[in-house]
Amino acid sequence: MVDWLALSIPFAYLGILVGSLAVFSNLYRKNKATRAASLAPWFLPHLQRNIYLTLLHLEPEAGSPKVPDSVLKAALLRRATEDIHRLVAIRNAKQALSTLLQRGSVGDDLWQRFQRAEKEIEEELRDVVNEANAFSPNWGATIFQSASEMAQNAHMRTRIDEIQAQAAPEREWWERRKADIQSSFMKELDDDEAAKLPLTGSININNIKQSLAKGGSDDDAVLVEAGGPAAQVQGGAKGKKKKGKN
């Protein structure tokens, strides 16, 4: 005879275990979803998308015309251009962020924010394609090409503005540098010309006369200006003294 009471105990244990795991898994998923929703977004609010949706759902007032399709297309193109910028940022950051996550340099919160931003940009691209096809068939296949060209032109204009803004300070620096180089070059030329002049000196005749009038000894020195032949003057003075004694 089968003992059902003995068999019910393991089944009851398994049922409690499975129920506990299910409750734990449900609470964990809810907590994870709540935590992910509370994380800060990866990008700032999508202003271009908000402008397009506002224009698209704008109700015309009494007597006012509807928003033209050309304006809506231009707004959608600006929205696609912003999506291009965000897509490029996502692709550039994915490899570096995954490497940092493997090394443990960043936390799971940052990786969850990035994954959520990646999913949002994918949904945004699909939405833009659908909106473009709604305006004209097959426009969704080329809208991002046009948006990419617009993004490149905007980047080039930004770089040109930055270069032009730096042109005036660079010109002033070069003018100062050129003036310093010219001044240094002219100074070197003057020094070279001064070095090539002959070293000439003139004898101070007054000092020689005073020395002779005093009848100085052989140790007396005759004062001459810089560069003069002092030895010859002193020798001549000694010879005159000896003649005077004779």
From TrEMBL:
<dbReference type="GO" id="GO:0031207">
    <property type="term" value="C:Sec62/Sec63 complex"/>
</dbReference>
<keyword id="KW-1133">Transmembrane helix</keyword>
<dbReference type="GO" id="GO:0031204">
    <property type="term" value="P:post-translational protein targeting to membrane, translocation"/>
</dbReference>
<keyword id="KW-0472">Membrane</keyword>
<dbReference type="Pfam" id="PF09802">
    <property type="entry name" value="Sec66"/>
</dbReference>
<protein>
    <recommendedName>
        <fullName>Translocation protein sec66</fullName>
    </recommendedName>
</protein>
<dbReference type="InterPro" id="IPR018624">
    <property type="entry name" value="Sec66"/>
</dbReference>
<feature type="transmembrane region" description="Helical">
    <location>
        <begin position="6"/>
        <end position="28"/>
    </location>
</feature>
<keyword id="KW-0812">Transmembrane</keyword>
